[in-house]
Amino acid sequence: MLAVEVEVAYSHDYGDALSKSILFFEGQRSGKLPPNQRMTWRKDSALQDGFQIGVDLTGGYYDAGDNVKFNFPMAFSTTMLAWSFLEFSKTMGLDQKYALEAIRWATDYFLKATSIPGFVFVQVGDPYSDHNCWERPEDMDTNRTPYAVSKQFPGSEVSAEIAAALAASSMAFRPSDPVYAAILLKRATMVFEFADKYRGSYNDSLGPWTCPFYCDFSGYEDELLWGAAWLFRATKATYYWNYVVKNIHNLENIITKNINGVSYNGGSFAEFGWDSKHAGINIMKNSSSSDPFVPNADKFVCSLLPESPTKSVSYSPGGLLFKPGGSNLQHATALSFLLVVYSRYLKQADRVIHCGDVVVNRARLIQVARGQVDYILGSNPLNMSYMVGYGKKFPQRIHHRGSSLPSIDIHPQHMDCKDGSSYFESSNPNQNLLTGAVVGGPDINDSYADSRTDFVHSEPTTYINAPLVGLLAYFKPTGVLKMIKP
User: Which of 45, 220, 260, 469 could be cross-linked to 156 through a Cys-Cys bond (beta carbons 3.0 to 4.6 Å apart)?
Assistant: First the structure.
């Protein structure tokens, strides 16, 4: 019998994209880089963070193309990396190791940021001076002021998000490093207690430094519930379950946002991202099949589907999901992640969703999510991948300081604040490949300028990539395959 090798080609190599989406986080690392650093054009940076006040705050991630450490979006990115791992690590293969390393780079930092009782450090660096410069993180000489919330000046949203990140990560590490997992979980309970006991928004205490960059638009109640939901999942303690059930009504309010001059009204059930955790809570708690999570999770799905009579999002002509605000691909990745996770719960419950007269099964949720992932990877009107280093055509001029400036290997001399301006303004491709970085994406007409100055569309962020890691791991088994056929 003759064995014939037949290649069965699917639309994208999800495994390759998965590896690159995780590698991206190495390009965002702050602190002392390890010997096994694979993105070698990056070097050590910000090695004195926190030292002026006697606290070691080195490590963690730069959230986007700048050199500030914003702990609110960093914590959400960590939670999503951990959730991606918990749901889909079985298909990650060799990338399991790198995914855990990406999570640990953040959790090691958060252990430092929460090491002083009564304080939670929420940011390192002055965003105004940082954004005034275009310099490598290895060179930066801008003010590295640490900002903390405390009993007197609370910040429940960022503290509770850090608690969620630590709790979710503790479960990710439990099989391979139970001692470390226990440390993370213990700290998560302490930080959540602090967030809940001393309630308030960091907008009020640190607004001049955190806004307009990462203001909390949706209030801190959702983060408290999000943190409690993750602690229940990690501990199974009824206290956290009761906490969520008792306070879930706080999320029923209609959210009104004004983003970049655009007013937006939406039901809280439809929101999910670094600022709003509402839909994530309903999806995650849905595994219990208890009200009010099921109806709200179903309403969330109906708010997304193109054919739904209650759709509250827009779609470009090429099929990309849009919501108000910058860095639009954060919505495409985070909301698609929830669709895939919810499809698994629907399978367990053997049920469908009713959006008015439209009946939706789990296969439709997967189809919509896959459409968003494929669009990002190149199935779009421009035939362009929005992940750097994936495919034949991808963004060349991303809004990212380290990527756009020559590496220390090429230019060992110090570069001052304005020395990078000519590189920023240049139309030449970036000097270094930030492999795996997913940019903010095209506009609603499927156009993309590939311009460094157009940061809304050309800047990558950790919170775009983090949920995409889970999506790519989920779709990886249906990527490019080879079969031996007799």
Answer: 220
Do the bridges between strand 262-267 and strand 146-150 make them parallel or antiparallel, or are there none, so unpaired?
unpaired
pLDDT in tens, 241-252: 999 999 988 777
What does the pLDDT read at residue 207?
A: 83
pTM for the predicted model, two decimal places: 0.94
Told to judge if 450 belongs to the known catalytic residues of this protein, a careful annotator would answer yes
Catalytic one of 63, 196, 222, 459: 459
Q: Using only the alpha carbons of the chain, give its radius of gyration.
A: 22
For residues 412 and 437, the answer to whether their CB atoms sit within 8 Å is no
Is residue 88 within 8 A of residue 466, CB to CB? The reply is no
Q: Which distant-in-sequence residues (6+ apart) come within 8 Å of 389 by Cβ? A: 20, 433, 434, 435, 436, 437
Among 436, 330, 335, residue whose Cα is nearest residue 95: 436
For residue range 116-139, list pLDDT tens digits in order: 999 999 999 999 999 999 999 999
Q: Which candidate in 66, 298, 450, 457 is catalytic?
A: 450
Q: Is 108 a catalytic residue?
A: no
Determine if the peptide bond prior to 486 is cis (ω within 30°). Answer: no
Give the Cβ contact number of residue 75 at 10 Å. Answer: 31
Which helix (H) or strand (E) segment holds residue 127: the answer is: helix 127-131
Task: State the pLDDT at residue 4.
Answer: 38
pLDDT exceeds cutoff 90 at 24: yes
Residue 285 confidence (pLDDT): 78
- The pair of structure tokens assigned to 93 is 């293969």
Is 459 a residue of the active site? yes
Question: Catalytic residue among 12, 278, 331, 399, which?
Answer: 399
Closest listed residue to residue 220, CA positions, set 159, 283, 282: 159
Instruction: Give 388-426 pLDDT, tens digit per residue.
Output: 999 999 999 999 999 999 999 999 999 999 999 999 999
Number of H helices, E strands in the chain: 17, 11
Mean confidence (pLDDT) of the chain: 92
